[in-house]
Amino acid sequence: MYVITVEFFIKESNVDSFKKRMLQQANDSLKKEKDCYHFDVCFDKENTNRVFLYEIYKDKNAFDVHINSSHYINFNEEVTPWVKEKIINKFEKQQL
């Protein structure tokens, strides 16, 4: 499985809009992508402009489908101006 983590730091004036839009994006990904298995959205209670994502896909190809989907492209175009920083990590999950 292919795991993505993303840490966002959002501009203060856009935190509420980003949170709402991020939850919609997670829901869209889970509903529209059969090989998106998990999409957690976590909000930092102490640093409210910090958002953490944990996503699991069947494989890298499934992630490529995700980033080329219309719902992701629309999401990314909308929220990019709201983001101060975005840190992406990619992992291969090993089965035990």
Using brief descriptors, characterize the structure shown.
alpha+beta; 4 strands; Alpha-Beta Plaits; four-stranded antiparallel β-sheet; single chain; globular
Strand content: 35-45%
Poorly predicted runs: none
What is the highest CATH level, the class?
Alpha Beta
CATH topology: Alpha-Beta Plaits
Shape: globular
| Through-space gap between termini | 12 Å
Percent helix: 25-40%
Secondary structure tally, helices: 3
CATH architecture: 2-Layer Sandwich
Strand line-up in the sheet with most strands: 2-3-1-4
SSE string: EHEEHHE
What is the strand tally?
Answer: 4
Our count of domains comes out at 1
Mean of residue pLDDT values: 96
**What class would the helix/strand composition place it in?**
alpha+beta
Largest sheet: 4 strands, antiparallel
| Radius of gyration over all CA atoms, rounded | 13 Å
Give structural notes:
By secondary structure, the chain is of the alpha+beta class. It has helices at residues 15-32, 60-67, 70-79; strands spanning 2-10, 36-43, 50-57, 83-92. It has a single domain, classed as Alpha-Beta Plaits. It is built from 3 helices and 4 strands. The longest helix has 18 residues, at 15-32. The radius of gyration is 13 Å and the shape is globular. The model has no long low-confidence stretch (mean pLDDT 96).
